[in-house]
Design goal:
About 40% of the residues lie in helices and about 15% in strands. It is α/β, with parallel strands linked by helices. The protein has two domains: about 15-20 and about 25-150, Rossmann fold (3-Layer(aba) Sandwich); about 160-400, Rossmann fold (3-Layer(aba) Sandwich), CATH 3.40.50.300. The strands form two sheets. It has an eight-stranded mixed β-sheet, with helices on both faces. Helix 1 packs across helix 5, helix 2 runs parallel beside helix 3 and helix 6 crosses helix 16. About 45% of the residues are buried. The model is unreliable at about 1-20 and about 405-410 (pLDDT under 50).
Length: about 425
Amino acid sequence: MISYSRENQDEPATMAVAPAPEEHIAPAPRVSVQAFCESVETAAAVQAAGEDRRLAKAHLKIQMGGVVAAIEAYRSAPTPNVIILETDSRSDVLAGLDQLATVCDPGTRVIVIGKVNDVTLYRELVRRGVSDYAIAPVRPIDVVQSICNLFSAPEAKAVGRIIAVVGAKGGVGASTIAHNVAWAIARDLALDSVVADLDLAFGTAGLDYNQDPPQGIAEAVFSPERVDTAFVDRLLSKCTDHLSLLAAPATLDRVYDFGVDAFDAIFDTLRSTMPCIVLDVPHQWTGWTKRALTNADDILIVATPDLANLRNTKNLIDLLKAARPNDRPPLYCLNQVGVPKRPEISTSEFAKAIESQPIVSIPFDPPMFGAAANNGQMIAEIAANHKTTDMFLQIAQRLTGRGEAKKAKGSFLAPLLEKLLAK
């Protein structure tokens, strides 16, 4: 069985039918869509659909080659939120879907465009988890409807994934890691993301991304009755094509005492419109920080290798495991490892006490991190080939579950060729 996600496998997918002029089609959220077409006509229809206002937030990419091209493309790259496949024959699409399942990330939704109007084929596609089947030739509005309906159905789950990053102790570099991991998610995994800086008094996300927006998260949290998609969109500051920032004011002209549910409306709105939300959670223990961590889809705890961090990391993991029994346990990483002349708890001893291994152990490198902070840059921008940059990508892959096991399949002659090139 293919690993594509459909919200309700018991309900059959529906063939695309041209909407009536008065039928409302809800806009699609920020999702990535990649189409693999066989004919120029279908490619043109998909391209025109991408210009529709309802797909304004979606990132659409079109390639030729059909199912074969899709299989080859995703052998070494993460799959998007939605794949559109055009096929000319019944046998090709079924065999192709079976092969695509071996390289497809869980959660990806598939729309098939074909020329065969056959109920048996339709049932086979549904059984394999295909979300929608459209009969060629398709019009742009048919493509728009197929994509938008994936996310507007009453039973559809929110597309946004919330990742909370918190330090086990103050000053461990949790914000720096959160910002660099979000950068890797957006740049290397091509996943539309937003960083929400929850440290309203002393947040550093604006400095790290070299942004100084006039508005940010404070306007939303102090006006919960105004929070909706349009309002939050106006507060976002665009850092890159795939990365936005909900910045903290970082001013002390007011106090920031919040109730337990103060951020709920903001998180719900972001979750409904953005595929990935990275929360930069300050090191404090209040009702709203506990709620933010408990309700997140995935949690990363940042610690340095000393006794206080070990105690706090274990306390956080134990509490969050108990509060989230059906979720993946919190992950953690070690930062600032190898400070000269500082006694440290070894990684093996730290892992033994926590009963799990850290994702990565990031070495102490003040010149590189200091230069990035002072220049308002990410580590990947000043040291693209540094091992720390690879570590941020590893964290991004683990937290999002995208591209973890994707390896390009090389030829059996590859080892020999590498030796010859080395010589």
